[in-house]
């Protein structure tokens, strides 16, 4: 970009900033108030209705297929968004702690108001975590699949293991038609 | 307003408390309205558009999950409402026309001793040029250049990468400068119908404007 471009941009920016002096039209707030009063209350989330916090709820314990590893249960929050209206940014999610000697079973619960034929689901791990299969560590960093969802809760369990202490974020995305749910769970792996 | 106060207002508004909602959004109203001016030429249309968007924010409040700043979420919803309005308008084959009175003012030309009138004309000229930008460029220019949002704020509102915002800004400014350099009589009404065609930005940056995919 040339100096002329920079100067031109600055001038343009200054001209545009002048528009900020425009005030609200008279009666705007009163009219808005009337419309809000007439409007229905905030609607419950339509398709994705769940709002389950990622707490280490219940002391459920799972045994992985091999029966070797004790699994810490962790409930994944897949809170509802009707669309990608709100961009994801760092979130102060609850942190679930699991020792590096254990396999954590990430319990993903997706709740739907109506049954759907196919939802696209993707779970992505940071490099420090691994999916865990019957034979141990799996090479994939991301798992994606499609499945039907029934009306109500749909639980999906995904064994994950971290071998180095640290805090890691597991990303989950589910998509049905044009509606998205995405969230993340923070897993803290401790030594021992 | 402290974060705690805001969170309480959000919780009340999510339960349908209109007064709490109004307290929550009152500081944002001028920006929401100005943002609407970039999408509707007639002041009354801009007012309706802004209020429609705010109603959508109210109805969608339960989707707010505290994972982004409330203002970011609010402007993301508002932006979405404005883009939807453009699409609806385009699907109906209807473009809101520039006010006739302004065309007359420009055609008349001549000196205007009234400085306020000149400033008003300059503002209308800028709004008119902004409305001719492809919607995605327009959003970036309005949020960054006009409203002073940071790159990452604009990126969060639009659901795109910062690099995409910079690219849109660059291209948007270039187009805007050309429009503003055009003879006065040509700027506002020209290409009105295509300017409101939501397919244009998609054509220009098909991959970058897929704000539902988070870059994947």
Descriptive notes:
The complex is a heterodimer of chains A (192) and B (216). With 192 residues, chain A is mainly beta. Chain A contains 2 helices and 11 strands; from the N terminus they run ααβββββββββββ. Chain A has helices at 3-17, 28-38; strands spanning 61-63, 70-76, 95-99, 103-112, 116-124, 129-133, 136-137, 142-149, 152-162, 166-176, 179-190. A 6-stranded mixed sheet of chain A has the order 1-2-4-9-6-7, with no helix packed on it. Chain A is extended. The longest helix of chain B is centred in the middle third of the chain and has 22 residues, at 70-91. In chain B, 69% of the residues lie in helices and 0% in strands. Chain B has helices at residues 3-14, 18-25, 29-37, 43-59, 70-91, 100-108, 115-131, 135-146, 151-158, 162-181, 184-187, 192-195, 199-204. Chain B is built from 13 helices and no strands. In chain B, helix 4 packs across helix 5. The N and C termini of chain B lie far apart (37 Å). Chain B has 216 residues and is mostly helical. At the A-B interface, helix 1 and helix 2 of A face helix 2, helix 3, helix 4, helix 5 and helix 7 of B.
List the helices and strands and how they pair.
The complex is a heterodimer of chains A (192) and B (216).
Chain A: H1 3-17, H2 28-38, E1 61-63, E2 70-76, E3 95-99, E4 103-112, E5 116-124, E6 129-133, E7 136-137, E8 142-149, E9 152-162, E10 166-176, E11 179-190
Parallel strand pairs in A: 2-4, 3-11
Antiparallel strand pairs in A: 1-2, 4-9, 5-8, 5-10, 6-7, 6-9, 10-11
Chain B: H1 3-14, H2 18-25, H3 29-37, H4 43-59, H5 70-91, H6 100-108, H7 115-131, H8 135-146, H9 151-158, H10 162-181, H11 184-187, H12 192-195, H13 199-204
């Amino acid at each position: 970009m040339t100096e002329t471009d920079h100067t031109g941009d600055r001038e343009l920016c200054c001209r545009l900033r002048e528009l900020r002096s425009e005030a609200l039209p008279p009666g705007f707030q009163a009219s808005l108030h009337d419309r809000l009063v007439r409007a229905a209350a905030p609607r419950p989330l339509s398709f994705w209705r769940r709002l389950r916090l990622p707490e280490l709820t219940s002391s459920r314990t799972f045994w992985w297929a091999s029966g070797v590893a004790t699994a810490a249960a962790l409930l994944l929050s897949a809170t509802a968004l009707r669309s990608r209206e709100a961009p994801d940014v760092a979130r102060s999610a609850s942190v679930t702690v699991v020792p590096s000697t254990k396999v954590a079973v990430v319990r993903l619960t997706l709740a739907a108001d109506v049954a759907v034929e196919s939802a696209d689901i993707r779970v992505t791990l940071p490099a420090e975590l691994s999916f865990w299969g019957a034979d141990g560590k799996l090479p994939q960093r991301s798992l994606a699949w499609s499945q039907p969802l029934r009306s109500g809760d749909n639980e999906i369990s995904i064994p994950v293991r971290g071998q180095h202490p640290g805090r890691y974020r597991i990303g989950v995305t589910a998509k049905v038609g044009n509606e998205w749910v995405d969230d993340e769970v923070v897993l803290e792996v401790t030594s021992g | 307003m402290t974060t705690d106060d805001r969170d309480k207002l959000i919780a009340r508004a999510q339960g349908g408390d209109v007064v709490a909602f109004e307290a929550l959004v009152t500081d944002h109203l001028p920006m929401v309205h100005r943002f609407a001016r970039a999408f509707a030429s007639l002041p009354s249309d801009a007012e309706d558009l802004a209020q429609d968007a705010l109603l959508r924010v109210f109805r969608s409040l339960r989707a707010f999950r505290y994972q982004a700043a409330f203002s970011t979420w609010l402007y993301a919803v508002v932006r979405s409402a404005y883009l939807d309005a453009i699409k609806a308008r385009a699907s109906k084959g209807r473009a809101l026309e520039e006010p006739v009175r302004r065309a007359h003012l420009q055609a008349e030309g001549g000196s205007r001793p009234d400085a306020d009138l000149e400033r008003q004309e300059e503002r209308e000229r800028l709004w008119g040029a902004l409305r001719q930008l492809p919607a995605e460029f327009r959003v970036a220019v309005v949020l960054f250049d006009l409203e002073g949002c940071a790159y990452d704020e604009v990126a969060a509102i639009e659901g795109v990468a910062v690099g995409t915002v910079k690219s849109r800004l660059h291209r948007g400014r270039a187009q805007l400068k050309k429009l503003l350099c055009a003879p006065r009589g040509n700027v506002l009404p020209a290409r009105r119908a295509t300017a409101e065609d939501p397919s244009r930005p998609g054509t220009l940056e098909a991959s970058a404007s897929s704000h539902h995919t988070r870059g994947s």
